[in-house]
Amino acid sequence: MSSNSNVMGSLVHVLGLFTSFLGSVVVTRTAGNPHSVRNAERAVGWQATAFAVTVAVAVIGVGFPLLWALLPLLYLLNLQQSVKAAVTASEGGMAQYPYTPF
What we know:
By secondary structure, the chain is mainly alpha-helical. It is 73% helix and 0% strand. The longest helix is centred in the middle third of the chain and has 27 residues, at 34-60.
């Protein structure tokens, strides 16, 4: 496995912090090596799940404003899992996210 595929596989997880799942979808469609594509698919699953949970908490929070206190915790969880996955991918492994379909 080349170091370029490790770098691309790592960057796709960090990209999700700034673009949610959209950046990972683009990488899934444009990456040339299987390692990057597989990491991008896992990042899409995690970022889409994190986005859906964040939206659900924000919408339900309209009726129960105390739920909005969970939003910073969700962001910190997303940050922690994305950095962990980026480190794993940079070492040539496949990221394992919790609560995702992949």
